[in-house]
Amino acid sequence: EEWYSTLNQARLLLNEVHDLAEDDNRFLMMLQEKTDGIDGARAMLLTQFEFYAIIQSILVDRVMS
Prior knowledge:
By secondary structure, this protein is mostly helical. The protein has three helices and no strands. Helix 1 runs antiparallel to helix 3 (40-63). The longest helix is centred in the C-terminal third of the chain and has 24 residues, at 40-63. 3% of the residues are buried.
């Protein structure tokens, strides 16, 4: 539960500072920006945000249930 909470706090902070979670189509936005030359730092933030979400999902499905 501590890992889940920590990842959740990290995602909340990333969203608060960089406004990442507002759009449900984050990956589509990222792909569109990629063709237009997405900022590498923003791409890394989006990847990090999604990575944390995936790890949280694994924790819920496999560890916490």
